[in-house]
């Protein structure tokens, strides 16, 4: 339906018998293959009938970009910015009513055996402390004698030895590695961070351990 009306669909998931679709009115190209989405909305459909519509306030700087299923029990709405970040978690109750709430404090993986705390937008120096308290230990990223870029060298000198590499151009991504009992965690930051701070977490991914 959204496509037929000229909207671009950016995500579609099913939850409790309803189809949840995110769609936007346009795209603005950015660097490194990124883009900014405009006029974003989220529609909840039942048999092609629109029951609920979620949209951003005109005064708000946050843009709706896409939706993803979150732990099979909720929908996570992501921003439509050049560097997408999660905005809110959406729930649908047994009666079909929709509610929007704060981001869940943790995200579970690997049959719920591994939990990653909410570290989005957090300086990596703070994020690593939160990860450690959740059972994720830093993994040495660049061994002595191996080539190292300038930014990685600075981070390692600051005690963040799990840095794996940094990009010196565009968004300035840096990657970091952590290990837990049931999985490995890769964290990506963006930028250089504010004065006297460290770059902020942009995203992360989890690789579950393969059972013996």
Automatic annotation (TrEMBL):
Q: Which CDD domains match?
A: PASTA_pknB
The name under which this protein is listed is PASTA domain-containing protein
In its UniProt entry, the species of origin is given as Pseudorhizobium flavum
